[in-house]
Here is the input.
Amino acid sequence: MATIQADAIKDLITTTQRELGELKFTELVSDIQEHVAMSELLKKNRVTFDSGTAIQWNLMMGHSQAAKEVGLFEVDSLDIQDQMVTANIPWRHVTVNYAIERRELAMNREPRRLVELIKIRRSDAMASMAELMEGRFWGRPATSDDNKRVFGVNYWVVHNGSSGDGFTGKAATGFTSVAGLNPDTYNRWRNWSAQTTALASDTNLNDTVLKWREAAVKTNFKPIPGVTNTPYGSANAMGYYTNYAVLAKLETRLENQNDNLGNDIAAKDGKVVFRGVPVTYVPYLDKSADNPIFGLNWGKFRPVFLSGEFMREMGPETAPNQHTTYVTHVDTTLNFLCYDRRRNFVLSSNATAGSDLGLG
Here is the structure.
């Protein structure tokens, strides 16, 4: 290994030589304006902890249709059918690491310390984790043979506009099943999908809003009266997510609807609401020219972490064969889980949406 001296360590030089303002620095590490995935995923009411070698849950896919009209003294006819199936997904593992050399700490002491080098290294690691998870959350594995990628939104909420509007979101390209269940066999194991027109005119925007409204109504399933069960997840909690192209059109529509905006030429920016829920801009979705709108039900869609393995930090410990180097590891075991695909939807201007989002 090549010998490393202090003048070759960029972080050390940058943080100790120049007068930049004590213990402060400007963070410019990402081109993404907001990491929506991490901020949403870390909300306490949207996180589940589990154990076991995989994540599994039960679904009741139908009923026996045993109810019928009868006459007096009619003989009973019993028809008991199996209705339960089990879905399952594997755990996935994510890690990030950072290191520091013992003599770097000695050189980074007062009075020449301008920022704390160890905090820079840790901030770098956390920024890397946030950037990775943003893409992984909105993306999906390339194929079912990929045994590393988490199952992101595009795995669960699949666009299939070529099959028409409705519960046509089956399995993503490269897959024949979702969580071990084939949507061709179980047609209730599909998400709502609709193809919208391009956003070039108000007429086209009207088409998008109409399909958005239909999707919100059709995915709003409520408990059947008299059926007692303990559902997975929690009550419906919708979130609507899109890119800037769609959001800008919606903000302009709001402005056109209001004649009393005063002197503010952008009075409606940041105020788009659909069915009482703010519409969230996702910078990562700007990668898509298909202008997707996702309706995610956070009551049924959530991250699951292996108990005791959420952002577990180990170290600092001495690195092998580098006795003056200390390494810290941050590990997480998780996957993203959708208990009920029918309560989620995606709208897109492309019949094969998701292809230009990349795989995260």
